[in-house]
Amino acid sequence: MQCQLSAHDDGEHFGLLADVGEYGTALWIRWPGTTALELAVLPDCPAAAPGPDGEGCCLFADHAEQHTWENALEEVPCPS
Ligand SMILES: [Zn+2]
Ligand SMILES: [Zn+2]
Question: Ligand 2 centre and the CA of 35: distance in Å?
């Protein structure tokens, strides 16, 4: 499981486990450091890149760090 956030030194890590049936939510695993994993169903991040063809963010609402479309160096493809 790989953290989906852009590089960060502190805070919890989040890995996308699965898109769940309900629209606009996904199942995430979060783990603070090396301790126990925790499952969470979180709503999708509503932020999209500016512009008419703005790319959506692959993360969850209220996540820390950058939106995925802000992370130009390390592109994280949205799991579909
Ligand atoms: Zn992380
Ligand atoms: Zn976002």
Answer: 25
